[in-house]
Amino acid sequence: MRAHLGDRLVIESPATGAARRDGEIVGLHHEDGTPPYDVRWSDTDDVTLVFPGPDAHIRRMQHERSESSRGSQPGASEAAATPPAAPRSGTADPGDIGRRVAAERRRLGISREETARRARMSANYLAYLEERPADPTLATLVRLADALGTTAAALRGGGIDLPPGRGHALLHPQLRDLGPEECRVLLSTHGVGRLAVSAPDGRPAVVPVNYDVVDEAIVFQTAPGSVTAAAAGKEVAFEVDHVDDALSQGWSVLAVGPASTVTDPDAVRELVRHAHTTPWAGGERAMWVSIRPTSLTGRRITPADQ
């Protein structure tokens, strides 16, 4: 590892690969740019002596800016032109922390600069946290939570096992209807939807199922004799939605149409080939049910100024 004055030292989270902490290198102890370094941390403005570990890398911010201002030149440093590493796959959207911080700050009507002052951190670091995937330290989260009158657990998304929609409503929400094409786009993202059907005992039931969209049909796997298998031969309703607690926004799409069992072997093989995931409930679920929507409606909640 080699660095220049003005480069940034970025510490990544071992779990997510997102930036956990960063700071400007303000002091070198070896002429060849090898560690250790004096680093001024963005979140505290403190300068400490750092011996970087395996979770650290150098981001050549100053050299990237100078190269972009001069344009590409032969012999330019390959390291300087290399973009920051993307977060490793499998992360649980680390940007949610920054989005929750920004949403809570806007709800309170506090500027970014004032929030940074209350949290005793650099405004630049707060901007980075709100706008980029990051995994701040617990101490940073505690100071931010104190500045915003909330808890570190809430900023991390605590209560994830609770039903969505428990956050604050928008000050000026806008509820609008979605057109059929937008409904198709949202529906085609696949995932988990809710099937409304009359159960074999005649009672109404709403059951979550893993689904896909193939040739504009909603398809899912089930087992004969189950509640969801009872949808075959009936008109049913199928609903998908997304609730963003961090921003108090969301959408829902409702599809209504006849359901039928897929029996053609070639069609079944095609469905198996196109399936993005197997049913989370597990077990033997070789029966495929297809819903052909005759009606698609949806709604979306956003801030009134969007």
* Main beta-sheet annotation: 6 strands, antiparallel, barrel
Count of alpha and pi helical runs: 9
Uncertain runs: 62-94
Quote the distance from N terminus to C terminus: 45 Å
List the secondary-structure elements in sequence, H or E. EEEEEHHHHHHHEHEEEEEHEE
pLDDT averaged residue by residue: 80
Instruction: Report the portion of residues in β strands.
Output: 25-35%
The total beta strand count reads 13
Class computed from helices, strands and strand pairing: alpha+beta
Question: Into which percent range does the helicity of residues fall?
Answer: 10-25%
Radius of gyration: 26 Å
Defining traits:
306 residues; alpha+beta; 6-stranded antiparallel β-barrel; 5-stranded antiparallel sheet; 9 helices; 13 strands; 25% helix; 32% strand; elongated
Q: Describe it for me?
A:
It is a single chain. The chain has 306 residues and is of the alpha+beta class. Helix content is 25%, strand content 32%. It contains 9 helices and 13 strands. The strands form 2 sheets. A 6-stranded antiparallel β-barrel has the order 7-8-9-12-11-10. A 5-stranded antiparallel sheet has the order 4-3-2-1-5, with no helix packed on it. Strand 8 (204-214) and strand 9 form a beta hairpin. The radius of gyration is 26 Å and the shape is elongated.
Short synopsis of the structure:
This protein has 306 residues and is of the alpha+beta class. It has 9 helices and 13 strands.
